[in-house]
Design a protein that fits this description.
Helix content: 25-40%
Oligomer: single chain
Radius of gyration: 19 Å
Shape: globular
Length: 286
């Protein structure tokens, strides 16, 4: 059976799930999205994702034509239609069909797309041995240009950093902000461990307020692992005892090499391992 996509209120086969060439999501990257995970048939942290989605939409003055409850029901319907117990969901809100001009208020109705599918950002062996990453020369978009807290359809800043990583033979790129502080990965939040303390950049450093990031911070509290937000420099990456990335797609994955430098002993560290195990138990309700 063809994959079923929820498109503007109804399920259609993947091949028929198309948008207009005049959709401003395509023409200008005008829209917002969320990436969510389903574990044991349940959408993980659905309310947190809905809050971020609606905040992102509000920030760019985009009115979503459905309530959070209606979107959750549509996601559950899409997951069920494709027979998934565990999967990844991409929920996309475009500005909608308009004209060949920037004015978003000429777009009559926003488009809504829900894709439920499997995802594998990194191969399983990298979860065992850790990632090699680089720091990108591409600078994180300034918050006064477009706030990184808006999960918009315009990911060119992230994509350019990802291209740098691919060219360097690395799995991921870490973006720095205009002040040289660490922001985040091209598609993940970043944490470092120093002297038993878990640290992650602040929202003012140019990070998306990741749902998995927030979950890991709560799990640290439950495990009595000191964890706090603070500005981090590239120097802190190089001298870290451990480093790991988090995201809905990546979940939790260790970083063992940055810019060719081994982190810690070059293997995933004990705190990273403990958080990874606890996260997997948590998301499946154990």
């Amino acid at each position: 059976m063809a994959l079923q996509i929820w498109l503007n209120g109804k399920l259609v086969d993947r091949e028929q799930a198309t948008v207009s060439v005049y959709d401003h999501g395509l023409l200008y990257g005008d829209g917002v999205f969320e990436g969510l995970r389903v574990y044991n048939g349940r959408v993980f942290e659905a309310q947190a994702h809905m809050k971020r989605l609606f905040n992102s939409a509000k920030a760019i003055r985009l009115t979503i034509p459905y309530s959070g409850t209606e979107l959750l029901e549509a996601m559950e319907k899409t997951v069920a239609a494709n027979g998934f117990e565990e999967c990844y969901i991409r929920l996309v809100i475009t500005r909608g069909v308009g004209c060949l001009g920037l004015n978003p208020f000429k777009c009559a109705t926003p488009g809504v797309i829900i894709i439920a599918d499997s995802i594998e950002l990194y191969p399983p062996e990298l979860y065992a041995k850790g990632l090699s990453v680089i720091t990108a020369t591409v600078v994180r978009t300034h918050a006064n240009s477009l706030s990184p807290r808006v999960k918009s359809l315009n990911y060119l800043n992230n994509i350019l950093a990802k291209i740098e990583a691919i060219d360097a033979g690395a799995s991921e790129a870490i973006l720095l902000n205009h002040e040289g502080n660490v922001a985040e990965g091209s598609g993940d939040n970043i944490f470092v461990v120093q002297d038993g303390q878990v640290l992650t950049p602040t929202t003012t450093d140019g990070v998306l307020e990741g749902i998995t990031r927030a979950t890991i911070m709560r799990l640290c509290q439950q495990l009595d692992i000191p964890c706090k937000e603070r500005s981090i420099q590239r120097h802190d990456l190089y001298i870290a005892d451990e480093c790991f990335l988090t995201g809905s797609g990546a979940e939790v994955i260790a970083v063992t090499k940055i810019d060719g430098r081994e982190i810690g002993d070059g293997k995933p560290g004990p705190i990273t391992g403990k958080l990874l195990q606890t996260f997997h138990r948590h998301v499946r309700g154990h």
